[in-house]
Design goal:
heterodimer, A: about 130 residues, alpha/beta, 5 strands, about 45% helix, B: about 220 residues, mainly alpha, 5 helices, about 0% strand
Chain lengths: ~130, ~220
């Protein structure tokens, strides 16, 4: 399964990609903001992990844009962010985000959330 | 004359404003027949008010100088220091990540070198533990992203303060008297969460989980 990892922090992208490799997902593509991610998004992407606060296009706007596309209605979206206010989390739910991780996270939490999302969407976890 | 602080100047300005206010109260039109004594004093009171307004303007212009000094030197310096710290932590984090990647690759290599030989359980355990430790260190570098957001927030507060001071200074001195204020360079693509934090991760995650389960 191909993961699209979206974060404006190079450090965070490396940490997420390394965590994914460690739990068995080595097929990854990266993007530095929502606009870049939207360009990289196609039907081959099976899972999206996105930050919220990014320049040009935020993760929330990106999630809405993906959901508005014909090929993005069902792709799992996991948001990994520092935004922990109740209204922010509810906005993510409204935007069609499937699950939510607060930074700083542990690889165990990342695996748990990916497994949860995949089990709901019927995919087989690694 | 020794330079006076902004607070002293503002205190003087306030006192002058109070005098003007009391002069205006005295000038307030009376609904009853005008008192000939007040009418006779009117030119003097106007002159007094005019003098006070002149004093206020002088003091406000002095305040402008003090504010401008603080604005140009201290705020700009603080802003540039914050950018420097952000850049330094980013470079350090990248260097550490590179080092950890190399270290993990070396542990993997040790595993491969051990293949074909009789592996000792202890050696395999140590390599696995070392890999976990290195990976854990890598994960701790998330602090860099969070700190960067905190610094970006602090920086945005400074820039906002600078904008407000500039506005205040323009108000104190008309543009044909005051020199043009050059604003600090604005960072491009500043995206941050003002509440970004390294602490209480467990509680914050629990709130997110409860809201996602409840949907």
């Amino acid at each position: 399964m191909k993961f699209l990892v979206v974060d404006d922090s190079v450090t965070m992208r490396r940490i997420i990609v390394n965590s994914l490799q460690r739990i068995g997902y080595s097929n990854t593509v990266e993007a530095g903001d929502g606009q870049e991610a939207l360009s990289a998004f196609d039907a081959s992407v099976g899972f999206v992990i996105t930050d919220w606060n990014m320049p040009n296009m935020t993760g929330l706007e990106f999630a809405r844009a993906v959901r508005a596309r014909g090929d993005g209605k069902t792709v799992p979206i996991l948001m990994v962010t520092t935004r922990s206010m109740r209204e922010d989390i509810l906005a993510a739910v409204e935007a069609g985000v499937n699950n939510y991780i607060l930074k700083p996270f542990t690889p165990a939490v990342l695996k748990e959330k990916i497994d949860q999302v995949l089990s709901v969407s019927g995919e087989v976890a690694a | 004359m020794a330079p006076r602080s902004a607070s002293e100047l503002l205190f003087d300005s306030e006192a002058s404003l109070r005098l003007v206010d009391s002069a205006i109260v005295e000038l307030k039109p009376d609904t009853e027949a005008p008192d000939p004594a007040v009418s006779a004093r009117l030119p003097q009171q106007l002159l007094r008010a005019f003098g006070e307004i002149g004093t206020i303007l002088t003091r406000l212009r002095e305040s402008r100088g003090v504010l401008e000094q603080a604005h140009m030197d201290k705020l700009a310096h603080m802003h540039s220091k914050l950018r420097e710290v952000t850049s330094a932590t980013e470079m350090a984090a990248t260097d550490i990540l590179n080092g950890l990647d190399r270290s993990i690759a070396m542990v993997d290599e040790l595993d491969q070198l051990g293949e074909g030989h009789e592996p000792t359980t202890r050696a395999a355990e140590v390599r696995a533990t070392m890999r976990d430790e290195l990976f854990g260190l890598m994960n701790h570098l998330q602090f860099q992203d969070i700190t960067t957001q905190q610094l970006a927030y602090a920086s945005s507060v400074i820039l906002e303060m600078e904008d407000r001071l500039s506005l205040l200074m323009k108000y104190f001195s008309p543009s044909h008297i005051a020199p043009e204020i050059v604003p600090s360079p604005r960072p491009l693509g500043l995206a941050f969460d003002p509440n970004a934090s390294n602490s209480d991760a467990h509680d914050r995650q629990a709130l997110a989980d409860s809201l996602f389960i409840a949907r």
